[in-house]
Amino acid sequence: MSALSRTTPFLALAVLVAGGLACRKPAPAPALEAPKAAAPAAPAVADDSARLNAEADQKRQAEDAAEAARKAAATQEAEYRKAAEAALKDVHFDFNLAVVREADKPVLVGIAAFMKAYPKATLLIDGNCDERGTVEYNLGLGERRANAAMTYLVDLGVAAGRLSTTSYGKEKPVCTEATETCWGRNRRAHFSLK
Fold first, then answer.
1. Residue 180 — pLDDT band, cuts 50, 70, 90?
2. Nearest to 183 by CA among 150, 140, 138
3. pTM, whole model, 2 decimals?
4. Which residue from 49, 103, 133, 158 could staple onto 153, CB 3.0 to 4.6 Å apart?
């Protein structure tokens, strides 16, 4: 056998193998996977947006509630002031006396009702006198008048701790004429909120 005939089958086999490889389709490229971090990015943005919207809604609701509370408090304060203005009227005294007059007892009943309706209210009761008499005498008489009004209120059920007194004697007149009518207006116990 010649050398050519010995190599021919190997050559043929090599040609067949090479030809087979050439005819063969290339293997498909592996599919590219999307990056794993990219997929959650859209939901994270949506989650942040939803969270921000919820926070904004909560903040708006809190502001609305605070505004409603402020308005309610302002309304209550206005009602309180209006009730105080209606109830807190002066009571008057006869010359040189510190006894609550029958005509003034309904005023004190109204003040007691106000105090019961508004349990946090506290009052200052000023005792006042007309211009007659010495400064010292009128300060003492004004104190007795304020105390008489306070005692009457306590008897009506108002806690003494919610009331305080002071005397101005003749230092704070509401009328300056030297007439009995004017002097009668000055002999009073005046009530004010503390």
1. very high
2. 138
3. 0.69
4. 158
